[in-house]
Amino acid sequence: MSDEAWFAGLDPDDREGAIERIREGSATAPEDWPRIAVDTGFASDESAYYEQLHEIAVEASRRAVAERERASDAQLVHAIRSMDDAERVANELAERVSEWAGSLFEGPGTGVEYAREVAGREGETDGERRLIALAERTVGIADEAEELRGFVERETPTVAPNLAALAGPVLAARLISMAGGLKPLARMPSGTVQVLGAEEALFAHLRGHAPSPKHGVIYVHEYVRGTHPENRGSAARALAGKLAIAARIDHYSGDRRPELEAELDERMARIRSREVE
Amino acid sequence: MGLPNGVRYVEFDGDERLATCGEPVYGEAVVDGWRRWDPHRSKLGATIELGLETGLDGGPRVLYLGAASGTTVSHVADVAGPTYAVEFAPRPARDLLSVAESRRNLIPLLADARQPERYAHVVESDLDLLVQDVATRGQTDVALSNRRFLAEEGRLVLAIKSRSEDVTAAPEEVFERSLDRLESGYEILETARLEPFHADHLAVVAAPR
Predict the structure, then answer these.
(1) Residue B139 belongs to what domain range?
(2) Alpha-helix residue ranges (DSSP H) falling in chain A
(3) CATH class entry, domain A72-157
(4) CATH number of the domain that B181 lies in?
(5) Which of B97, B135, B161 is nearest residue A62 as measured by Cβ atoms?
(6) Residue A209: what pLDDT?
(7) Is A111 left (phi over 0), alpha (psi -120 to 50) or beta?
(8) Which of A6, A54, A62 sits opposite B121 (nearest CB)?
């Protein structure tokens, strides 16, 4: 349908409208847009049409690029740290709530779920009302932690598509956060990525009285946690190697390389098929 | 078979190299306005170097999928007519924009080649040439869903990267499977492995059916 054209119904001088259309529009099927543009009087001739389209498309793409890049690693670092803080604080408060509630109500429970239950009560005394208000705050913070998790899950694939695909969005964001950004992560050797989050064990090892840590925060990845302890070191090393490469591609080039996942899957299958005692 | 109009061999440091005429963009060697087109950096360049009939002749209207930072598409735009360049990743697209600035016939679009309806309101129908170089799984599906832009007598020039489809399978196997699938919408005219320029890549020239 010709009314799906990016210029349909637009004033030829409406630059902002045209940019918006190019970015947001769609059509079920292409048509001979240059001819239609000339026939409907949008452009005086085909070469004027291309001239105008070129100019608008460059500007539309420039804005889209800028917008996509603003979803930056710095935002992600704030979000994941806030998510961790919110989770920790919610758990601490939930503990306080259940301790207090144990002295007032029957059938004590624990955790955020119990705080949710307490928050649903009607307070009869001043003390009960204070406790219930605290429980409500606790639930609010726990809910915000969930919202933040959702944000991290949506945003990480834009900021670091390959890393997010390999590590999962939350672990990817956590690695970026621990490294202090995508760029510092991209510059890390894979051995450092492997033990990110195990600094204490690493320094104990370097002081000479502990074995070297096999993994840091990447432990939460199924490929490390789900591998037999005997092979876990190899799994962590293989995973960290691919994650380091993914971070470099994400930082320096930004395009998707699905073959990384396949290579990792293949490598893991080989590690996991090894004999264990 | 000759080279497409506007593409020729020019002497660089005593060797005959593929080149096009235009504004230099990525630090390529230039002799008398002719920019060296390095087949090691460009799958389409390698396809031409290997003598396949790419349909780049006669100022075609082109849709280029997977334009990346615009290295290859800059050479295409040197010889072609209106050239729509689709790229999804913002970082390379930034470089593509600077290529587009010096080429009035280049129309950059930040879009996903797997969703042609998101740019069908801009890219015209009945194009002469569809060039595809995307490194995602399902490269043949991309070619099939973008067939709608091609004229009946148009051409598809596709580089299939076997490692993007399946790293565990032998490239020959991946290529065979891809070609089988491609035949549901295209008639395959020519194929060639892109070695020594690109490992595990197959160049395909096809016509819509």
Answers:
(1) 38-208
(2) 15-24, 33-39, 46-70, 73-104, 111-119, 126-159, 161-167, 169-179, 182-186, 190-195, 199-207, 222-225, 229-252, 259-272
(3) mainly alpha
(4) 3.40.50.150
(5) B97
(6) 81
(7) left
(8) A6
Report the residue of chain B nearest A71, measured CA to CA: B90
Average pLDDT of chain A, as a whole number: 92
In chain B, how many H helices and how many E strands? 6, 11
pLDDT band at A1 (very low <50, low <70, confident <90, very high): low
ipTM of the complex: 0.93
* Closest by Cα among B145, B41, B32 to B86: B145
Domain spanning A160-276, CATH architecture: Orthogonal Bundle (1.10)
- Domains of chain A, by residue range, sit at 2-70, 72-157, 160-276
Distance from C-alpha of B75 to C-alpha of B85, rounded to nearest angstrom: 12
**Closest CA in chain B for residue A267:** B168
Disruptive mutation site among A2, A28, A36, A58 for chain B (greatest number of B CBs within 10 Å): A58
Which of these ranges, A2-11, A84-93, A140-149, has the smallest mean pLDDT?
A2-11
Look at chain B and report how many structural domains it folds into: 1
Using DSSP, state whether A154 is helix, strand or coil.
helix
Chain B contact set for A4 (CB, 8 A): 120-121
| Among B117, B120, B137, beta carbon nearest to A258 | B137
Is A258–B106 a contact, with Cβ atoms under 8 angstroms apart?
A: no
Question: Residue B163 and residue A161: Cβ atoms within 8 Å?
Answer: no
pLDDT per residue as tens digits for the range A185-204: 999 999 999 999 888 888 88
Residue B168 lies in a domain: yes
| Residue from the list B101, B135, B149 with its beta carbon closest to the beta carbon of A255 | B135
Give me the pLDDT at residue A277, please. Answer: 62
Q: Searching chain B, which residue's CA lies closest to the CA of residue A251?
A: B91
Phi and psi angles of residue A44, each rounded to the nearest 5 degrees, phi first: -75, -35
Backbone angles phi, psi at A240, to 5 degrees: -60, -40
Q: What is the mean pLDDT of residues A172-196?
A: 94
B191 in a domain, yes or no? yes
Distances (CA, A) of A157 to A154, A258, B89: 7, 13, 11
Which residue in A has a C-alpha nearest to residue B68's C-alpha?
A: A255
Q: How far is A71 from chain B (nearest CA, A)?
A: 11
Which residues in chain A are closer than 8 Å to B119, comparing Cβ atoms?
26
* Contact between B118 and A26 using a beta-carbon 8 Å cutoff: yes
| pLDDT mean by block of 10 residues, chain B; 209 residues | 85 92 92 94 95 92 96 96 93 91 95 94 97 90 97 96 85 95 97 94 96
**Cα end-to-end distance, chain A, whole Å:** 68
Record the pTM: 0.69
